[in-house]
Amino acid sequence: MPLLIWGAMFEVGVKDIDAQHKRLFDMANQLADAVRVGKGHEVIGEVLTDLVRYTQTHFSFEEQLMSQYGYPAAAEHRQKHQDLVQQVGEFKRRFQAGDAPVVDEALRFFTEWLSSHIMNIDKAFARDLKSKGVQ
Fold this sequence. Notes:
Four Helix Bundle (Hemerythrin (Met), subunit A); mainly alpha; globular
């Protein structure tokens, strides 16, 4: 059973952003599945690394749109992204140092952050983009 279930409530209405958010949900669920079935340290580490990489790719995409369309709350939104990257980097560092239980903490933090970020921060950003004709 997936940890995060994608549904209409998470859609922001901008096709590319929604597709990327779905991918983040899938990756978080992949990490949760790896943890749940007790896959090896290497597999969990690899999935966590992929999740971190894709999150950064997604943030870069959003931030490029912010610049392109002159999003007025861009600085605040970017800061939220930077805070998450820093926190997830710390989780990854702890995991690589042998703190295996940190994966559960990281997964819980990331899923709660992702849901809240989409529902609040990204939906506001998407409203601004859509008002400028972005679909």
